[in-house]
Design brief:
The chain is α+β, with helices and mostly antiparallel strands. Helices cover 43% and strands 20% of the residues. The protein is globular and about 50 Å long. The relative contact order is 0.15.
């Protein structure tokens, strides 16, 4: 995960230069407790991640189109990130078409983005926000999750057609756009 690298860069570069009123404030509600509460209220069963301030949510079999989600908080940089992970990996011969489809989908998104790892074909959707100087409220968490879920709902079926059924990226994107308008 590149988050640790980003956190280290942000922390070392800017943390010591920050004015007092932008540093984390004691007495605010715990962002991690708020995150767990929201995930549970949604009806999911969040499992704590032992290595980060985050939770996994397994959506159960068949893991298609999505398999799980990961919600985490970078406490030192006060950032929240929510990933929805797609189940099947992209075969090498479909990566260029999937990348094109994801680029087309990303262009119209106001919040969040699709990502593909070219090394293993992993596809995910990421929604994130910074909350420096503010409380990470249940509403902010829900909004970030909702943005991710809406984008996945809109494009998942078409993505699976490009990924596994050989559909052309442009055609799949046009069809997804027509369905949602």
């Amino acid at each position: 995960m590149h988050q640790a690298e980003d956190d280290a860069i942000l922390s070392s570069s800017y943390r010591s230069q920050m004015p007092e009123d932008t540093k984390p404030q004691l007495g605010r509600a715990s962002p991690l407790a708020a995150l767990e509460r929201v995930l549970t209220e949604i009806g999911w069963e969040p499992q704590p991640d032992e290595e980060t301030a985050g939770f996994y949510v397994d959506f159960g079999p068949p893991h298609i189109p999505v398999s799980d989600a990961f919600a985490a908080i970078a406490l030192d940089t006060e950032q929240f990130v929510f990933y929805i992970n797609f189940g099947p990996a992209v075969p090498p011969d479909r990566m260029n078409q999937v990348a094109r489809f994801l680029t087309l989908a990303n262009w119209g998104l106001m919040i969040g983005n699709f990502e593909m790892d070219y090394s293993d074909g992993h596809v995910r959707f990421k929604s994130s926000l910074g909350f420096r100087g503010a409380e990470l409220s249940d509403t902010l968490i829900r909004n970030a999750i909702l943005s991710a879920m809406n984008a996945v709902e809109r494009y998942a079926d078409s993505l699976m057609q490009v990924l596994g059924q050989g559909k052309d990226a442009d055609q799949a994107f046009r069809e997804a756009a027509l369905k949602s308008s």
